[in-house]
Every structure is written in structure tokens, then in C-alpha cells.
Design goal:
The protein is of the alpha/beta class and 405 residues long. It has a domain of 143 residues: Rossmann fold, CATH 3.40.50.720. Helix content is 46%, strand content 15%. It contains 18 helices and twelve strands. It has a seven-stranded parallel sheet, with helices on both faces. It has a five-stranded mixed sheet with strand order 11-10-8-9-12, covered by helices on one side. Helix 5 packs parallel to helix 6 and helix 16 packs antiparallel against helix 17. The chain binds NADPH dihydro-nicotinamide-adenine-dinucleotide phosphate and magnesium ion. NADPH dihydro-nicotinamide-adenine-dinucleotide phosphate (NDP) binds next to helix 1 and helix 11.
Length: 405
């Protein structure tokens, strides 16, 4: 029985993970859950899954939870997330949104817990110190992001993750790494093919209307600007220890090929499947085994028994080059990882703040990329030494973004 702590259990990834746990009670137990604004969802989850500990956003909600569930350990706020991250468990699923995921992940790794990582911002902002700590502690960092789960699967047995870690460690697994390129696929989002002018006045609803995936609002906007793919290039750089110039983005509107790896002999290995996050969530939780998910998929408006049907959905797989001039967030992300130091932290902080402002109706869609560029232009990028410094830089870049708007 694997004891699972889910950080962000009320969100899109978190609720899908709980569905997996509900359907696999012999394998997993949810020992810890966290939520912030969706407190009623969290209360229902506590009733059903009976965790030992929970974390909520503020003291008032903590009192409410404690009154109803006196036996449950209740934490709250930013410090509460770090406290709950130190609880006894076998694996921590980090499904938090944004930079809030960094400090608790660092804490869980320092306690030697394996991590199933959905929260890509943790690696964008803290990639260097987080992967270093994973190596020191012998912790597995298992990707949940679908592209990275795909790359992880392509690398298995190919010098990538023979030792059960997402990143390769040639010294320990003894296999020579011979990756030529990582081909990171992207759906292109709802505005694929549009010009910058055509995107200037898009509405929040249009930007939230992702063609293939149903996700939380922040990542959905990131997919529309293609910052999501930029964040994923940086995430892949740290997870697989591959320089950014070996990571190419391929737009693949069908979202069936979740990413590929090209090796030095010209062989390309791809991972495919219907676009459903339960596949990568399940693999990260059950690794190295695979769950029996197909019966579940067949019930959900799927034409088939749940498998990928190559004569319908899988029959037309197309690929095109990413338009990095129009979707300039992608270029900004490449520039940030090449610059190094705190550049990705600054970019990520500004992006989070600006996406929140767009979702609040305070700025236009194209202001997101334009303002990130301006924040980057005004910042210097000394390397942060620890989580505390990263969080300070994050705050400052958000302040600059607000000021520039
Ligand atoms: P959601 O917004 O749906 O869920 C986020 C979760 O984190 C919720 O439980 C939310 O609580 C909680 N949360 C948000 N902000 C804070 C905060 N400041 N402090 C404490 N808790 C907080 O996001 P997703 O599930 O879509 O995404 C989660 C992560 O996974 C992101 O990093 C995203 O990029 C990544 N990811 C998501 C995919 C998807 O399909 N959804 C695919 C690949 C990666 P509450 O809702 O109660 O306020
Ligand atoms: Mg992804």
C-alpha cells in the first residue's frame, strides 16, 4: 500500500489523482490532502478519503475543518504546506499551481520522499537546487506533465532512467547517454495559426477554450500564449539534464504523440496515447508498474474500448514548426534558460502575475508576453542560492510586472 500525499488535491490534477486512488484502493491510500479556495471540495475529499493531515489556505478555514474533523491534523498557509510536506508518506504528488509548489517540494525531497511532479514551476524556478537535492537524497523525481512522462518512457532502457530516476545518471546506471534531441510536442493551443494582431482582443473565454485538454485556468492560459511549452523546455532541461539547444518544440495539434526522443543512431522513439492526464498521473504513482486504466476510459464518451484507435483519432498525425515570432513566450523561455541564473525565476514570476491579471480582466492577452519581455529587460540575473532567495526574486518580478502594467 503506497501512502500518497497530494499537494493541490482540489485542482484538476489533484482530483484526477484521487479518482485513480478511489479505483485502486488496494494500491494507494491518500494520507494527506491540500486545497485553498475550493474548501467545500476539500471537505468532501476528507469525508471520503479520511486523510491523516490536510492543509488549507488560512486559519479560518483551518478552524472550520478542525471542527468537523477533530482527528485530522490541520495546517494552513504557506508554512502549512511545508509542514504537511514533511509528513510520513511514500510519495508526494505535487499538483499545486505555480511557485507555491517549490518550498513544499524541497521539504519533501529533503525528507527523502519520492516526488510525482505535475507542478512544472518548481523546476522552472528551482531546477538546479531541486535536482541537486534529489541526487543527494536518492529521491525519484517522476514526471506527471504528459510530455515529460513521454520522454521519461522513451528514455527507459535507453540510458535515461534505468535507475528509476527521471534524470539520467551515467555514473550510476553505467549506460552511455546518446540522446541527439528531445522532440517536445505542443498542441499549439486555441490560437494556433493566428497573428499577434488577431490575438490582441481575444477574450478570457476564448483563451480558456483549449482544443484538447481540460486543465486548471493558469496552465490553460499558458498553453494559449505557449509559455506552457517554454516552461516545459526548462522543465525538460532539468529533469533529463539535456541542454535547451537539444530540445526542439514540434507543434502536433492532435495531441496523440506526447513527445519523442531522437538518438544518435537516428532512431526516434515516441510515446502515444489519448490525451488523458490519468495516464501520466497513474504511471508516476504506480511506477514502475502500469495501472489498468482502459476500462475507465471506455466509459467517457470514447468511441472505442478506451484504446487509441489508429483508424479514427490516431489516423492523421501532423507536425509543424512552432511559430516563435508570434508566440514569443517560447523564445523568451529559451532566452531565459540560456541566460541562466535567476532569469527563469524572473520570467516565471512575471508570467504568473500577468496571467492572474489577464484572468481578472485587467490586461489584454498580448500584454502578457509584452510585459514579461519588459520585466526581463529591466532585471539582472544573479544565481539564487536557496529557496528563500528564489521566492524573494519571484516577489520582486511580480512587483515589477504590476508596476509596468
Ligand atoms: P488547478 O488550478 O486546477 O489546481 C491547483 C491546485 O493547487 C488546487 O488544489 C489549488 O487549490 C491549489 N493552489 C493553487 N494555488 C495555491 C497556493 N498559492 N497555495 C496553496 N494551494 C494552491 O491546476 P492544475 O491541476 O491544472 O495544475 C497543477 C499543476 O500541474 C500546475 O503546475 C500545472 O502546470 C501542472 N500541470 C497540469 C496539467 C493539467 O492537465 N491540469 C497538465 C500538466 C501539468 P484550490 O483550487 O482549492 O484553490
Ligand atoms: Mg504538458
Amino acid at each position: 500500500m503506497k501512502k500518497v500525499l497530494i499537494l493541490g488535491s482540489t485542482g484538476s490534477i489533484g482530483t484526477q489523482a484521487l479518482e485513480i486512488i478511489r479505483n485502486n484502493k488496494d494500491k494507494f491510500r491518500a494520507v494527506g490532502l491540500t486545497g485553498r479556495s475550493r474548501i467545500d471540495v476539500l471537505l468532501a475529499q476528507i469525508r471520503e478519503f479520511e486523510p491523516e493531515a490536510v492543509c488549507v489556505g488560512n486559519e479560518e478555514d483551518a478552524k472550520r475543518v478542525k471542527a468537523e474533523f477533530p482527528k485530522v491534523d490541520v495546517h494552513f498557509g504557506e508554512s502549512g504546506l511545508v509542514e504537511i510536506a514533511s509528513m510520513d508518506c511514500d510519495i508526494v504528488l505535487n499538483a499545486l499551481m505555480g511557485i507555491s509548489g517549490l518550498a513544499p517540494t524541497y521539504e519533501a525531497i529533503s525528507r527523502g520522499r519520492d516526488i510525482a511532479l505535475a507542478n512544472k514551476e518548481t523546476l522552472v524556478a528551482g531546477g538546479e537546487i531541486v535536482t541537486k537535492l534529489c541526487k543527494e537524497k536518492g529521491v525519484k523525481l517522476l514526471p506527471v506533465d504528459s510530455e515529460h512522462s513521454a520522454i521519461f518512457q522513451c528514455l527507459e532502457g535507453n540510458g535515461g532512467s534505468a535507475c528509476g530516476r527521471a534524470y539520467a545518471e551515467p555514473e550510476t546506471d553505467g549506460i552511455k547517454r546518446d540522446i541527439r534531441r528531445i522532440l517536445l510536442t505542443a498542441s499549439g493551443g486555441p490560437f494556433r495559426g493566428r497573428t499577434i494582431d488577431e490575438m490582441r482582443n481575444v477574450t478570457i473565454e476564448q483563451a480558456l477554450n483549449h482544443p484538447n485538454w481540460s486543465m486548471g485556468s493558469k496552465i490553460t492560459i499558458d498553453s494559449a500564449t505557449m509559455m506552457n511549452k517554454g516552461l516545459e523546455v526548462i522543465e525538460a532541461r532539468w529533469l533529463f539534464d539535456v541542454p535547451a539547444d537539444k530540445i526542439d518544440v514540434h507543434v502536433h495539434p492532435e495531441s496523440i504523440v506526447h513527445s519523442m526522443v531522437e538518438f544518435m543512431d537516428g532512431s526516434v522513439i515516441a510515446q502515444m496515447g489519448l490525451p488523458d492526464m490519468k495516464i501520466p498521473i497513474g504511471l508516476a504513482l504506480d511506477y514502475p508498474s502500469r495501472l489498468n486504466l482502459l476500462p475507465e476510459f471506455s466509459g467517457k464518451n470514447r468511441e472505442t474500448d478506451g484504446s487509441l484507435d489508429f483508424f479514427t483519432k490516431g489516423s492523421n498525425l501532423t507536425f509543424e514548426q512552432a511559430d516563435r515570432k508570434t508566440f514569443k513566450c517560447l523564445d523568451i523561455a529559451y532566452a531565459a534558460i540560456n541566460e541562466g541564473g535567476s532569469a527563469p525565476v524572473v520570467m516565471n514570476g512575471a508570467n504568473e502575475e500577468l496571467v492572474a491579471m489577464f484572468l481578472a480582466g485587467r490586461i489584454g492577452f498580448t500584454d502578457i508576453a509584452d510585459t514579461i519581455e519588459r520585466v526581463m529587460g529591466k532585471s539582472s540575473f544573479a544565481s539564487p542560492a536557496d529557496v528563500k532567495e528564489i521566492l524573494e526574486i519571484d516577489k520582486e518580478s511580480r512587483r515589477m510586472a504590476r508596476e509596468l502594467v
